[in-house]
Every structure is written in structure tokens, then in C-alpha cells.
Amino acid sequence: MTETSKPLGLRERQRRAIEADLRAAALKLFGERGFDEVSVAEIAAEAGISERTFFRHFPTKEDVVLTLMEGYGLDIICRLESQPLDRPWFDILRDTYTGAYDVEVTMTGERSEELRRSTAQVMKLAQGSARLRAGIDARARSWQDDIAQIVAHRLGVDVDQDPRPRVWGAVAIVVGMANAERRAAIEGSLEASPAEAWDALAELLRPPTGS
């Protein structure tokens, strides 16, 4: 059962509403002035709440936007855990990423198109902020470890003894980040499907044909 199939209580609805307002305020200010030039106090004021309330919801300034990416990461993990194992892992990972891209609502209950637009904006902002980029990299490493653990479990191997799980975890993150950065570079276009990035990797791995 997904989170969206459960009724939400008043407190949870209020929490989500405040966090959505904070994200919207942060993305607006970051888009106007850049990530490093905006303070938590300014984000809180734009959202109409106190700075103290901000920190009840997000421990750092970068978390207010990086939590957007967590929804996508969780969706990838959920899909990967449910994929059948009767195909090569390259195909499994490709279908996991493209499946997460093609739906209207993620398995964690978020609107996919809005999530992709916001993620593209965050990736673009990170091009001008080492602090935000470090936050993205930290989350990517966490997802890479999660994917490696899932692959190891489903292959029935030890993640520290068999190199395949960590290799596939790294491949998944590199391809996913490459696609996200490409999407950010073309102003958040929704046309940059992850299928194109996986197809590009397949082409690079294909043995060269003889002349």
C-alpha cells in the first residue's frame, strides 16, 4: 500500500502545506538571486512564517529544496524493489528509471511533472553553489548505497564481496545525474527522458563494428 492510499490527518496535512509553502518561497527567491544569496530568514518571511518554524521542518537551507529530490529517489527505490529478475540488470535499471519518469504520480504520491520541473531548477541552482552541489552529491551517494544493497539482496550476494551491486549502484546514479544535469542545462525541459541517457550508455558499451 502506498502512502497516498492512506487518509492523512489534520497535523500531517498542515505539515505538508507549510513545507510546500516554504519550498515555493525558496525556489522563487533562489531563482531571483541564487542559492547562496538568500537567507533562511528571508525564505521564512516570504512564506509568512517565523524562522523558528522553518527549522522545525528543515534542518538546513539546502534541505528545503533537496527534499524535493528525495521523493524521486524514493520512487526509484520502490520501483527497483518490485522489478522482476528475469532480465539483465541493465534493462531492469533502465525500466526502473523510465517507469518513474513516465507516470503522472510517483509511487510516493507526488506529481511527477511538478517534481521534474523542481528538480531541474535545483540542479541548475547547484551549478552556481558548491554548498547545494555538496548536498546533492551526499544524497546521490546515499541512493547509490541503497541501490547496491537492493541489487545484492536480490542477487543473493554479499555487497562487500561481490563487485556487481556497487557497480550497478554507481551506474544508476551516474546515468540518473547525467540526465538531470542535461535537463537543467536545457532550462528544465521535460523532453529529456532518462531513456535517452540509458540508450546513450548502451551505445557506448556496444562493441565497435569492424570497418
Write up this protein.
The protein has 211 residues and is mainly alpha-helical. It has 2 domains: 7-60, Homeodomain-like (Arc Repressor Mutant, subunit A, Orthogonal Bundle), CATH 1.10.10; 62-211, Tetracycline Repressor, domain 2, CATH 1.10.357.10. Helices cover 70% and strands 0% of the residues. It has helices at 10-33, 40-47, 51-57, 63-82, 89-102, 112-126, 130-155, 164-185, 194-205. 28% of the residues are buried.
Quaternary structure state of the chains depicted: single chain
Output mean pLDDT.
84
Helix and strand composition category: mainly alpha
Helix percentage range: over 70%
Please write the string of helix (H) and strand (E) elements: HHHHHHHHH
CATH architecture of the largest domain: Orthogonal Bundle
How much strand content do the residues show? Answer: under 5%
Query: What CATH first level of the largest domain would be assigned?
Result: Mainly Alpha
